[in-house]
Design goal:
By secondary structure, the chain is an alpha+beta fold. It has two domains: about 160 residues, Alpha-Beta Complex (Cathepsin B, Chain A), CATH 3.90.70; about 40 residues. It has eight helices and ten strands.
Length: about 210
């Protein structure tokens, strides 16, 4: 099969965007509900000391209670755990910096995720077959789907660079409140209060007092 292009598959901005992306990617082989992914993360944290070190100095018990909440935002620790658990080679493209971050490179199932600095989307892959039919993939099995991995990653880098050119990044000078629970930023206190009520997020900080370097 011949690779054609990457597609941005939007995920809901409900605090579970990372989990939505991973869940959708596995629909072909092993559909996993969002709450099950959160449960897996919480169990693996308890079982494996190496994951607890990733969280340090976070309180593991508090983290487990937090990550099970539907609006709790996933990030690098959750990617590492789910990559190991499901044998996933997860390639994350950071749109703002154009950085490509690889998790579980030796794992057998390959997927691509787009990160905007506060939200994850899944990258779909459009392929053409010899009979000229097209099919979209969210996940590739390296030994089965017979694709050139390095070339595909290079195409993903180019895709992220194009997204970088199109994407307007936030000017922090216009924002005053940072939601610690999910990373969203707000100009007005009333906007954050509305966000609190909708997602039950309570931790916040003043952007003027934070270092984003």
């Amino acid at each position: 099969m011949k690779f054609l292009n990457f597609l941005c598959e939007k995920t809901p901005a409900d605090g579970s965007c990372l989990f939505h992306a991973i869940s959708t990617s596995m629909e072909r082989i092993n559909p996993i509900p969002i709450n099950t992914l959160r449960d897996i993360v919480s169990r693996e944290i308890v079982k494996n000391d190496k994951y607890q070190k990733i969280l340090s100095p976070a309180d593991v018990k508090k983290y487990i209670e937090w990550i099970k909440q539907p609006s709790s935002w996933g990030g690098e620790p959750e990617i590492i755990i789910l990559s190991d658990y499901f044998n996933l080679n997860i390639v994350v493209g950071v749109v703002e910096t154009k950085e490509i971050i690889k998790f579980g490179e030796s794992n057998e199932n390959l997927l691509f995720i787009i990160y905007y600095g506060g939200h994850y989307d899944l990258a779909g892959m459009d392929f053409e077959f010899q009979n000229h039919s097209n099919e979209k993939f969210h996940l590739l099995r390296k030994k089965v789907d017979n694709v050139e991995i390095e070339n595909l990653i290079k195409k993903f880098e180019e895709f992220i660079e194009e997204l970088n050119k199109k994407f307007d990044f936030l000017d922090l000078k216009n924002y005053h409140i940072y939601c610690v629970d999910c990373g969203c930023m707000f100009m007005l206190e009333s906007e954050f209060e509305e966000h609190q009520q909708k997602f039950n997020h309570s931790a916040y900080a003043s952007i003027e007092n934070m270092n984003f370097d």
